[in-house]
Automatic annotation (TrEMBL):
InterPro entries: AAA+_ATPase, ABC2_TM, ABC_transporter-like_ATP-bd, ABC_transporter-like_CS, ABCG_dom, ABCG_transporters, P-loop_NTPase. It comes from Zootermopsis nevadensis. GO terms for molecular function: ABC-type transporter activity; ATP binding; ATP hydrolysis activity. It is a multi-pass membrane protein. It is found in: Membrane. The keyword DNA repair does not apply. The chain crosses the membrane at residues 450-468, 480-500, 520-545, 557-577, 589-606, 618-637, 674-695. This is ATP-binding cassette sub-family G member 4. Keywords: ATP-binding, Membrane, Nucleotide-binding, Transmembrane, Transmembrane helix, Transport.
Amino acid sequence: MSTSSSDIDSSKEGGSFVIDTGSGSITSSDKRRQASCKKFQEEIPFMDEDCEECGDVDCHIPRRRPHEVVTRIPNQVKIKTLTHLAKRPAIDIEFQDLSYSVRNPGRREGRRTILKAVSGKFRAGELTAILGPSGAGKSTLMNILAGYVYAGVSGTVKTNGHPRQLKFFNKLSSYIMQEDLIQPFLTVQEAMEVAANLKLGDELKFPEKQLAIDEVLNTLGLLSCRNTRTECLSGGQRKRLSIALELVNNPPVIFLDEPTTGLDVVAIKQCISLLKLLARQGRTIICTIHQPTASNFQLFDQVYVLAKGQCVYQGASQQVVPFMSSVGLHCPKHYNPADYVLEMIQGEYAENVRILSAEIQNGKLSKKLDPSVAAGEGVSDPDSLKSIAKICRRESVAVMPAVFNHALMDSMDINRDYEFPTSCFQQFGILVQRLFLQQRRNTVSLGIQLFHHLFSAVLIGGIFVQTGDDARRPFANVKFCLSILVFFLYTHIMTPVLLFPTAVKLLKREYFNRWYGLKAYYLAITVASVPSMFCFSLIFCLVSYLLSSQPLEPSRFIWFFAASVAVGLVSEGHGMIVGSVFSVMNGSIVAPASFSPLLALAVYGMGHGGAIEQSMSFLMGLSYLRYGLVAITDSLYGHGRPLLSCLDSDFDYCHYKDPELLLRDLGMADTTTLGQIVALLGFALVYRFVAYLALRYRLTSEFSNQVLNYIAKILRHK
């Protein structure tokens, strides 16, 4: 049972809390102890803070008592609870003797060790920061714990004391990348609805999903901008939205890579405070962070410091200075502890890494918050400290929704295949709907495409005006066919080359966090691109066809249009392969280099088609552009076209008055338009399949590393 907001009232009874447990009220001595808990009463941002300064080691582990109702003093801010989210188990992550090494690039033998047998434990209900200099292994450690890196890893990773089952763990964790990659041309509300529909499926009904979205937006302070487009959000709002999108299915473990990068001082404070609130609700939140301020550093429940692949500190942030002092490193007053510990483990102080790592046993020890710290706040009786801790924890847990529970982990069938909450067909429908909405709202792109097709059609049609029925200039009309081919080639190959790398980054975030499967995504982008291609291609073909005076036969125009679209489909698949593998800069070079030989093979043998060598015929058959050129040309000159007219000629003889003679000299006599279009569709399927494999290659880093290592071994042996 979860505690709703209606269960929490504010009343005043002597300025103290009254906690009704169903068996009676708290005694007056408990009230005095509660009043002495300074941090509990003075915590302003979030009222679900555990009383860390009470000295109770278990204070950070929430244990909710049934039927508890909390009555609060009016001048405190209520916690924003998430009572309508799906239930998830709380997860503690423990790792022992974790090592990771990679092959040294450019060397024949040897491997470089990045992590050196580090250990540690990250608990549910705590906000943990991983700190360290550049190259210390922060991101590597987090990627290993998240399950994105597993080749070359030794050691053990456990969840709730049991060996981690990666297939199951991946369904219960979310990874928020450093870049705030959010789908454009959607409002905050629409983005959240898409995330809820994909990540929750039928687990919650539609009204419950809306309640969950409202609660998440309210908790993260995004209600006021729920109808704002994502591209219009500020940096802090984008960061909060990226967290909200992953929070909608209530993951018990959240990994964040540099969540404060690019934010101002105020936004950083808000971001860390928000993460602490989410951790207090029972989640395990782990983030890498770069040089936090002293005030922000104190907000972290646990700090894990890495240097040269070794753990040099693990424990409470308040214990960093005492720990450093215990080994003779005294942090000056009014000095940021985070800056000091980073300075003491690099440069001329690099020798301290060995000393600190030995003192903390490379992460096997953890420096808990000392009860004397809380005693310094005015509470000296250890018994009183423990009692206050229980009251603080009971207050914190009572207002928390019962969505995190260690027992849920045992009750869930870990052998069940938790692939995705939604079926492939449902994912496809949601993604296609989102893509169509984005296309419709991207008016700038639609306007550019319309102008591009119209202007190019008028330009090409104007250049080859009245060539379609002139027997005196048949090769001019062949050049018109070649111009159509090149237009569809460049237009549809360069669009994915320029846009797909960004789409792949967005895909990584959503795919890694188990929003949908790659098959559903790939099918959706394939289908979503067809209507716009069809409409713009129809405009281009119709204008250019009429201006160039081609035969006014509907069937012939349909063949011409079908052949042109088929070339566009294959070219788009070609561009998707390049865009999936290469960056925009490299792809802009690779794409023209890859289709230039195909274009040369397409025009080979023009004028002496009957004399083309057999070997060249085989090579020409490997070029989809050859099939496209033949299909476009045959659509204009084949299908039993009557004799052409010799326009503006004093003689009634033109050598290529018979269209069959022209097709014979072009090497296209024994072909049909339908056969060429079928071949183009076959090429389209092959190219799309290769592009799909290229996407899997990009998304599966371990597969990439294995392939590259295998190639490197072959080269070394040679």
